């Protein structure tokens, strides 16, 4: 019995020491890794996407826990985005997947005062989001893809954010 306990403790200490050697694998550091919205949000789509993104601006930049985040978006739609379009979102904390979920795009569009079908043409959206101050410190990543019922990709976005430890 003592041998099993010793082996267990040795395994725990090795795992903890590896966490210090391999940063961000078991723990995450305090320093934000990304400086501005140009670092935070990238287009993972291609030229065939229905949405051409001109600009995405965040304020404050980078976002801070416990503050209001304003997102300004500007783009052009090549075609209408119809009812039945889907948003698929994956959220990770470090390497750990927190959420993988599909949403009805039109229900989400209602939250920014848009309604389906969203007509082709220029698109300008401003949205305020209150970020809770209780956001656990660390690095987060978001992958979002919007597709139509005909399986045409509207857009693909990757986002990254770091929240430092509360002081």
UniProtKB/TrEMBL annotation:
SMART domains referenced in this protein's UniProt entry, alphabetically: ML (SM00737)
Record flagged with keyword Transport: yes
Instruction: Give all residue intervals belonging to the MD-2-related lipid-recognition domain.
Output: 41-161
Q: Which CDD domains match?
A: PG-PI_TP (cd00917)
Q: Name one GO molecular function term.
A: sterol binding
What residue intervals traverse the membrane?
none
Q: Where is the signal peptide?
A: 1-19
By what name is this protein known?
Answer: Phosphatidylglycerol/phosphatidylinositol transfer protein
Organism per entry = Phascolomyces articulosus
């Amino acid at each position: 019995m003592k041998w099993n306990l010793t082996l267990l403790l040795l395994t725990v200490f090795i795992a903890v020491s590896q966490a210090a050697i391999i940063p961000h694998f078991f723990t995450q550091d305090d320093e934000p890794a990304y400086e501005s919205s140009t670092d935070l949000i990238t287009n993972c789509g291609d030229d065939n996407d229905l949405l051409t993104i001109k600009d995405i601006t965040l304020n404050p930049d980078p976002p801070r826990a416990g503050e209001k985040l304003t997102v300004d978006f500007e783009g052009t739609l090549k075609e209408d985005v119809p009812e039945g379009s889907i948003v698929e979102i994956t959220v990770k904390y470090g390497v750990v997947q927190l959420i993988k979920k599909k949403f009805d795009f039109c229900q989400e569009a209602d939250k920014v005062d848009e309604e389906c079908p969203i007509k082709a043409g220029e698109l300008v959206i401003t949205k305020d989001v209150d970020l809770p101050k209780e956001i656990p410190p660390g690095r987060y990543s978001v992958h979002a893809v919007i597709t139509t019922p005909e399986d045409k990709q509207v857009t693909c976005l990757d986002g990254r954010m770091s929240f430092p430890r509360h002081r």
